[in-house]
Write a structure and sequence with these properties.
The complex is a heterodimer of chains A (411) and B (162). By secondary structure, chain A is mostly helical. Helices cover 47% and strands 11% of the residues of chain A. In chain A, strand 6 and strand 7 form a beta hairpin. In chain A, helix 3 packs antiparallel against helix 4, helix 4 runs antiparallel to helix 5 (144-165) and helix 11 (273-297) runs parallel beside helix 16 (392-402). Classes of the chains: A mainly alpha (411), B alpha/beta (162).
Amino acid sequence: MQTKEIVVPTSSISMLRKPDPLADTQMTVSMGPQHPSTHGVLRLELVLDGETVIKAVPDIGYLHTGIEKTMEKEKWQQVVTVTCRMDYLNSMGNDLGYCLAVEKLMGVEVPRRAQDIRVLLTELNRLASHQVWFGTHAMDIGGMTAFFYAFTERERLLDLFECVSGARLHQSYFIIGGVRWELPDNFLSLCADFLGTYPKFLDECRRLITGNRIFQRRTKGVGRISREEAINWGLSGPTIRGSGVNWDIRKAEPYSGYDTYDFRVPVYDDGDVWSRYLVRMEEMEESWKICNQALERLKEPGEFMSDHPKLKLPARDLMKEHIDVMIHHFLLASEGFTVPIGEVYQSIESARGEIGFYVVSDGAERPYRVRVRAPSFVNLAALPAMVEGQLLADVVAVIGSIDIVLGDVDR
Amino acid sequence: MSENTGQAQSAKMIPRYADVTLVRDKFAGTIQEIIEAIGEVTLIARREGLIDLMTFMRDEPSLRFDYLSDIGGLDLGEFASPRFAVSYQLYSLEHNHRLRIKVFVEEDDAVLPSLWSIWKASNWLEREIYDMFGVSFDNHPDLRRILMPADYEGIRFVRTSR
């Protein structure tokens, strides 16, 4: 009788292809995708020897929705509604990166006031994003209280975003050429109120967590990655600045007039979870400074949108008088505009690191290809290098410290 | 006032791109073309000698591309030959300049050398290209699908019709 070969579907085989046959004390544990401290749907396959992690293999893709492909189906101006859904905690940053890339392709100048509005809102969004990080990171390690403080304050920020755009998380407020509409009348005073009380909140956070001995013992020397390794793995944002690399795109390749703002880039050398914690805490303070400066500049009136004929809709009264203006308005609103043939790569500093947009245009009214360099994706790739040899309980601390957003990882 | 400063600001917005005259002669066999457009430099290379070129890019003191920002795939359509393009975005932390290296591959011979030995960042980025465009990489330490499940059939980002 012929024996039939058993075919096992590849998906059910463990992803670790060669488990060490000698080590019978080793155990493979699947952590996630529903684990609360994986910040979404990240699955980690961990090989453990006792409590020590021998090998870690991240498994991603649970949130993959093909956003890069979706962008090819949208018109240039409509793409911003998709970009903000990738990294949903830092949506303004994503929109800004995409808009800058297309503006570079079209050679459009954005008015000064629009740039200042963009800077103010991006930095407010960075604050909101870092607050989510602060709350969840502390909660992963065991400090439950910080979560409530951080989310209460974040709620105030989301109210500001709602005031300006009508949406709390997916604002789509930045469009190619500027911002969608002028700031509401009461926005600047609401924003000033928020920024006035913010240092008090930051001080509370510091007193709550930074001086906490348990938190320090759980984070100092944990998840260490050296400067050379961090560069080689392509880490970016606060994660690489915690490893002693002084690199912030806002300083290195300034966009939207960041070179005219006065702020400092915090850098710590140890490369552990604690260093990355300190970097983000100080970054919140620096973002607060930038917000104050931008708010001061916004008191002057100005244009919120470029007057490029392809971008700005014609004035209402002109449309009523001239048929060609009417046609122009109709075509812009229905067909959209075309962008010259070419390709650009534009990267900005998002809350998580370098988010880059590689935009290719074939001269049509839709992008030919938008490739997104997602900071969380590249940072997460280095997770095994940080956790191997550490304790299982430290894995959650390390995941919290690289501040991944799975929407950004999977896109 | 607003108009002038606005223009000055956006002029600084454009990142600096590296001067590649040094590599043009040294790697004449690998480099096909150097394109400068919209303030960016794209170096079109063949896949033969790509590893040598990239290693030189990383180690040469005047270039020092120690940071691999991104690898992006591009499908030029089912009738194009070569069909796929893979763009490497390099960055130098030391000199603060960028460069894009683009390699074209044929559909029926879509293989590129892996850059794992040069930049570890290439690990997942190459896996994503493999997953989404079907371009495979030689000497990659762990070439599996990354975003799609392992038993998924088909290639996601390929363009069939516009």
